[in-house]
C-alpha cells in the first residue's frame, strides 16, 4: 500500500489504515517482562553467525550501544542501532520454497531474540521453511540495565512503549522499523536463488510489537508485500483492510493483560473484506508465551500455525 498515491479515495483509505495504528497506544511490555518479576542479568553480545547487515544505516541520534541481557532462561537485545537479518535455513532436502521473516517483540525497546526469534526460526526450518530473524532497530533506552529495569513513575512495565495518538506521528515513529522490514524482504528476494526461496512465497510473523511491525509492514511497507502474515498476541483493533491484504493467522490468549480484553475488531475487519483469516483465542497463556513450554494450550499455537500454512500450500514444494 503506497501512502500518498493518486486519488482522494486512496488517500482516505490510507488515513483510515493509519488511524488503526493509533489504536496501538496501550503501553506494550517486552514479552517476557509481562510474565513475572524474574531478575535481568547483563550478558555479552552473543555470536550471531550468518547475521547480515540490512544496510538501513545506524539509528539516527543513537548514543547508547547495543546491549543484551538474560531473563526467564531466555535472551534479549536492547539499543539495537543497526538492523540485521539472520537466515535459519532448512535442510536442502526439506526446503519447500516458502520463507518467513520473523519479527520478535519487546515494545520497540527490547527484542525477545530467543523465545520469539531464533526458536521460532528453528521450528520453521524443521518444517522445510527458510526463516529469517529480523533484528530491527529499537528506540533508545538507558545504557545501564538497572536503570532500564526500574518501573516508570506511572508504574508501567520496564521497556513500555509510550502512547502515540497522532497517526502521522505513529507512522513516523515506526519509520526505521518499517524500513528494516522492507530491506529484509528485498534481501530475501535478491538472494532467493541462493536460499532456495520462491520470491512469491515470503511471509512475515511477528510477536507483540513485532506483530505491530508486521501489520505496519503490510499497510505501509510499499514493496514488501508479505504473501501471508502471522499476528501473535498483537493488538486486534479494527482497521480498513487493503483489497490485496494477505491471508492472516492470529493467536492470542484470553488472559493476555494487554490485548485480551480489547476486542477482536481486526478479525471482523479481515472477514468483512473477505480476506482469509484464522483466529485462535486460547483460554490461558498470558502475554509473551512465544515458544516457552507452558502447561496452557497456548503452547500449541505453532503447530496450529504450521497446519494453517500447510492448508494454504506453503509447506509444500513449489510447483
Automatic annotation (TrEMBL):
UniProt keyword list: Hydrolase, Signal
Organism whose genome encodes this protein: Sphingomonas aerolata
Name used for this protein in its record: Alpha/beta hydrolase family protein
Record Pfam families: BD-FAE
InterPro entries cross-referenced by the UniProt entry: AB_hydrolase_fold, BD-FAE-like_dom, GDXG_lipolytic_enzyme
Gene Ontology MF: a single term: hydrolase activity
PANTHER family: AB HYDROLASE SUPERFAMILY PROTEIN C4A8.06C, PEPTIDASE S9 PROLYL OLIGOPEPTIDASE CATALYTIC DOMAIN-CONTAINING PROTEIN
Signal sequence region: 1-34
Residues of the BD-FAE-like domain: 174-222
